[in-house]
Amino acid sequence: MKKESVGTHQKALQINLDQTKYGTFSEVGAGQEVARWFFRVGGASGTIAKSISAYDMVISDAIYGHSERYVSRQRLATMLDHEYGLLTERLQPRRGDTTKFFVFADTVAAQSFTRREDWHAWMGVRFQHEPRGEPSQIIMHVRMWDKENIPQQEALGILGVNLVYAALYHHDDIERFLKTLIDDLTIDRVEVDMIKFSGPAFASVDNRLVTLRLVQDGLTNAALFTADGEVVQAAEVLYKKAILVERGSFRPVTNVTLDMLNNAQAQFIQEPGVQGEELVVLMEMTLKNLTDEGEINHRDFLDRVDILGTLGKTVLISNYGAYFRLASYLFRYTKKNIGIVMGVPSLREIFDEKYYCDLEGGILESFGRLFRNDLRLYVYPLRDSATGSVITARSMRVAPHLQHLYAYLVENNYIQLIRDYRPEYLPIFSRDVLNKIKSGDASWETMVPSQVAKIIKERQLLGYKTATAPTEIPAGAR
Fold first, then answer.
1. According to the model, what pLDDT value does residue 5 have?
2. What pLDDT shows up at residue 112?
3. From CA 126, how far away is CA 148, in angstroms rounded?
4. N or C end of the chain, less CB within 10 A?
5. Residue 241: is its pLDDT beyond 60?
6. Which of 302, 326, 298, 284 has its CA nearest to residue 229?
7. Which region among 203-207, 408-412, 427-431, 470-474 has the lowest average model confidence (pLDDT)?
8. What is the model's pLDDT at position 453?
């Protein structure tokens, strides 16, 4: 039976009436919107040990120390550290045996007279899941889409109550935690694009899977984590950087995967706008790339991520089927050059007009969004299996009425063929490699980078099984 969601009022009241929970609220940037709920519903004296807002930067620095950015993960961490330390130092000796202490904090950049865009917040909870226990922690980043200050404040208040409630009552069920996080809200109002769980209450939680769930459950359209599995907010990685991204299933990474990327990168860094700039390389998997027979296999996903991690690659999970939507996402964070690496089959899809029926301007509108800010496509050739001929970005054919548009994009270097590719890699396709891995055909090892072959065999990833010798039948049993 489907469980009914609990409203914001009932959540705040339930916490207030729970004599085992007691905490501090520290909120900066949009009013005390979360604490306000607990005062509003009554019984707040049973929950709130202290509520504080340090708006003046001098006052804030005196309490929490100086910060280069006041709406940041670092500032949130110092707020949680400071307030949790004070709370437990002062109250644990007296009531620690029966109380689970918690601290909620947020730091917010909301709509104001001086801030007209890029509204976002960092918020988090540090809490004990048992009296006198070591604390666990949840931190998350939120983008706000309401256009006015008051709706933003209301959304923050609801989201904060949802976070505190989920931390205190659903920390042992991450799937339910995420589903209740935006109760009484919609993704049109708030987007949770990063969340990280840590501490003893989350010892079995893999934050890479949580990142996938954010996209899968519709809390955000894209989320990232680094090669070592650290979940990050997009601006922490992409802000004002040149970006090169390759989309794929990476099941597994093959010699073609890296040949595409390495040759594209060699061309990309020669662009005038990229020379001397810090470059971020992303490996993007869409939900479509991850879907197998209608469902996402989490074990299979982690296998692919482990392979990308051993290559030192940052992973982007997205729900952007169309490339122009991916480009729009990246444009939020940088005006520097962006390059997208793809093969000829993906380029053909970009020129298929059926994908743009939802746009008033059709394919022209999509290209206007895609090729802003000197974005470039780097296209790897394809060997036609029927004829053996090599199709490149210059020789690929499009519909007759799109030929002039295609020629314009090629001649002006918006679409570039990848040069210096390895012809011997053209027959390699990841689906064939995967079949060989699963069937025990050892020839797959020559089709992938050596470090990829090593991790697949050592960890038995993607269905790989070591060959076993026939069982010897004891002589007496014959």
1. 75
2. 79
3. 30
4. N
5. yes
6. 302
7. 470-474
8. 96
Yes or no: say if 75 and 107 are a contact pair by the CB < 8 Å rule: yes
Per-residue pLDDT of 359-391, as tens digits, reads: 999 999 999 999 998 899 999 999 998 888 999
Nearest to 331 by CA among 305, 368, 289, 380: 368
* Per-residue CA distances from 188 to 5, 180, 356 (Å): 19, 16, 22
Outline which parts of the chain fall under CATH 3.90.950.20. 8-205
> What one-letter code names the amino acid at 251?
R
User: What is the tens place of the pLDDT at every residue in 136-184?
Assistant: 999 999 999 999 999 999 999 999 999 999 999 999 999 999 999 999 9
269 Cβ contact list (under 8 Å, min separation 6): 275, 279
Distance CA 332, CA 55 (A): 27
Residue 3 binned pLDDT confidence (cut-offs 50, 70, 90): low
Per-residue H/E/C for the chain = CCCCCCCHHHHHHHHHHCCCEEEEEEEECCCCHHHHHHHHHCCHHHCEEEEECCCCHHHHHHHHCCCCCCCCHHHHHHHHHHHHHHHHHHHHHHHCCCCEEEEEEEEEECCCCCCCCCCEEEEEEEECCCCCCCCEEEEEEEEECCCCHHHHHHHHHHHHHHHHHHHHHCCCCHHHHHHHCCCCCCCCCEEEEEEEEECHHHCCCCHHHHHHHHHHCCCCCEEEECCCCCEECHHHHHCCCEEEEEECCCCCCCHHHHHHHHHHHHHHCCCCCCCCCCEEEEEEEEHHHHEECCEECHHHHHHHHHHHHHCCCEEEEECCCCHHHHHHHHHCCCCCCEEEEEEHHHHHHHCCHHHHCCCCCHHHHHHHHHCHHHCEEEEECEECCCCCCEECCCCCCCCHHHHHHHHHHHHCCCEEECCCCCHHHCCCCHHHHHHHHHHCCHHHHHHCCHHHHHHHHHHCCCCCCCCCCCCCCCHHHC
- 9-39: pLDDT as tens digits: 999 999 999 999 999 999 998 779 999 999 9
Q: What's the whole-number mean pLDDT along residues 228-236?
A: 95
For the chain, percent of residues with pLDDT exceeding 90: 86
Tokens of 33: 């919107």
pLDDT of 293 reads 60
Q: Which residues sit opposite 66 in a β-bridge?
A: none
| CATH 3.40.50.620 residue ranges for the chain | 236-459
The dihedral through the CA atoms of 408, 412, 415, 421 has a sign that is positive
Among the four given CATH numbers 3.90.950.20, 3.20.20.140, 3.30.70.270, 3.40.50.1820, the one describing domain 8-205: 3.90.950.20
